[in-house]
Design goal:
Order of helices and strands: HEHEHEHEHEHEHEHEHEHHEEEHEHEH
Oligomer: single chain
Helix content: 40-55%
Distance between the termini: 51 Å
Structural class: alpha/beta
Low-confidence stretches: none
Radius of gyration: 21 Å
Number of domains: 2
Strand order of the largest sheet: 2-1-3-4-6-5
CATH architecture of the largest domain: 3-Layer(aba) Sandwich
Largest sheet: 6 strands, parallel
Strand content: 15-25%
Amino acid sequence: MINLKKYLECLKKLGVDFISGVPDTLLNDLCLAIESDWPKDKHVLAANEGNAIALATGYHLANGSVPMVYMQNSGMGNALNPLISLTDSAVYSIPLVLLIGWRGEPGSGDWPQHQRQGELSPLLLDLLNIPFKVLVPDESQVIEATEWAFKTALGSSSPTALLVKKGVLALKEKAGFLDVEQPYTVTREESINAILDAAPQNACFVASTGRITRELFALREQRNESHDLDFLNVGAMGHALSIASGIASAQPNRPVICLDGDGAAIMHLGSLPITANLKQKNLLHVVLNNGVHESVGGQSTVGHKVSLTSVAREVGYNTIPAYVEDLGGLVDAVRGLTSSKRCSFLEMRIKKGMRKEMPILKMSPADSKKSFMNSIKC
């Protein structure tokens, strides 16, 4: 991995003033360095990648500098519309530099949900007429390519991109937060276990991208329970609620519980009022809120700065008065809300972190889908 202090100095010398984006595992050390060392009012951790593109566009319009937008390549879908209809040279011709973690790079042996995106990433950039370079683990090459990207973006008044290989701007997965003072004491794993205990026996679960899927799968193994009524949304961040809502529509007599994260829920917050106003009597949306994008390094969300419970109530969900933070309150809330026969929302405030010996999620998405579809019909 390159020297991150030197890289941030390089960005400043290039005139980079504003940075926005959504964190990625392959960029996690850089994202943490930006969060720590960049001026707070010049860095916005966005709700989603399209939000980041629009923020960067507004900043450029106001002062003419070339901003940087970072993301995982899975976020290119969220970024596609503003890149085509806002920043493209045929529209407003906005210069910015995309820093894109290249998950699923061909030959990397990445997980199935990343492989197709990895194949398509350079093709999408070509189709968008966005010139790009690939960053490799060589400091001089990284600096040279970054200088090229900003100078090219400024000269052409249009976006450029840097595709980042594994190991260039990140070291490894972040597992713990031992040195961080935390306001909440219950872990995500403990919370999921309590929800499994409190849920109706015939409930099916939809688990959000990241560590929620990993821990739900591990808990089923530990409890000697079937995975057949669990849909693990290993990709498509922010869409677990909509998947759960679709299932609830098709199976109105089966309890459906969506296990979501704060970062994922915020990413596509518009799905909350849509879902709440479908008035599905069998859906419970649980947000396990630790205030960070934990799976990609622990960068802060606004999850602990706002009341997601108040938002949910105002858009039409049935809720309890406030979030819960202890297991007893969680169990009581799950039992009460699932028996209410109303579309309900529950926010559980939890501590950051995952136990070090948590097993890697190893499952076949295709096989899991078949088992789920066969079991939910019963």
